[in-house]
Write a structure and sequence with these properties.
Blueprint: H1 18-23, H2 32-64, E1 81-82, E2 85-86, H3 87-96, H4 99-102, H5 114-127, H6 139-151, H7 163-172, H8 177-188, H9 193-210, H10 213-216, H11 220-231, H12 239-258, H13 260-263
Antiparallel strand pairs: 1-2
Length: 275
């Protein structure tokens, strides 16, 4: 009802003529059960595209991202393995052992590009268990990635529990090579098999690098300086302990690199073929 001025007040009412009303067919009666089914079907049809879109988004997010990394910061045995060692470790050695790379001056001493190394790390994690090889126009990027992998292990390759024994071995046996080799072998027999295999292959590889020191300038001692903090360190460190112990740890690492064939002779089955 529309209200105007008192003079203009008019009552409006919509009515149907009998003829118009007769022409409109009555709505068919739908049984209660059928009506309920129809409502559910309509509701399902409307929701299906949304459910499909949500499911697709979840799948894409899970495919593009992974909650846990495959390699970096992951325990040795939790990574995808090839011949008993993490794939990242193996493919880096394969690349760095090639003649054109292993002869590069300053290998492991010269750092790669931080941005390119980070991009390479992301690429490796995306490959995950499908990682079969690695390369870079700048070999120092792969060398930096190799060291970063070792540095980010939850525990060093030589566990914290054996750190003091390694230092004691170096302090006590510096004048007797044979005795020091025996003591080192006894220490490495205490390693878990995955750690021992990783260490044996790493030291074998570093010895191989040192054999090209006339070209790459990386002697066993120079390599030990580069790898010491990543491979052999205490669980709790301070400035004084690092200054006092690290030179000894570096000398121990240089010793086992230099005499790798003899030190790891009992572990020959854990080693690998190099070029």
């Amino acid at each position: 009802e529309y209200m105007g001025t008192p003079q203009q007040s008019v009552s409006l009412q919509l009515t149907q003529t009998p003829q118009q009303s007769a022409n409109i067919p009555p709505s068919p009666a739908i049984p209660l059960d059928d009506a309920s089914k129809a409502a559910k079907q309509e509701s399902g049809i409307l929701k299906t595209p949304r459910k499909m879109a949500d499911g697709l988004m979840k799948f894409m997010r899970s495919a593009l991202t992974r909650a846990e990394p495959f390699y970096f910061g992951v325990d040795i045995t939790a990574s995808p393995l090839v011949d008993g060692v993490p794939r990242i470790f193996s493919v880096c050695i394969d690349f760095l052992s090639t003649p054109a790379v292993v002869q590069t001056e300053g290998l492991f001493r010269i750092s790669g590009s931080s941005q390119e190394t980070a991009a390479l790390k992301t690429w490796v994690e995306e490959k995950g268990p499908n990682l079969v090889s690695i390369s870079s126009p700048n070999c120092h990027n792969v060398a930096s990635l190799y060291k970063q992998y070792l540095r980010e292990l939850p525990q060093p390759v030589v566990p914290f529990s054996l750190y003091n024994e390694c230092l004691a071995c170096q302090r006590a046996s510096m004048s007797d090579v044979d005795a020091q080799i025996t003591v080192a072998q006894n220490i490495f027999h205490k390693l878990p098999t995955p750690n021992c295999q990783l260490l044996a292959q790493m030291i074998q590889f570093l010895n191989f690098v040192s054999c090209h020191s006339e070209l790459n300038k990386m002697t066993a001692k120079n390599l030990a300086v580069c790898f010491g903090p990543d491979v052999l360190r205490a669980e709790e460190e301070n400035v004084l302990s690092v200054m006092k112990d690290m030179p000894i740890a570096i000398d121990f690492l240089a010793f086992i690199i230099q005499y790798s064939d003899r030190v790891f002779e009992p572990f020959a089955a854990l080693r690998r073929e190099l070029p």
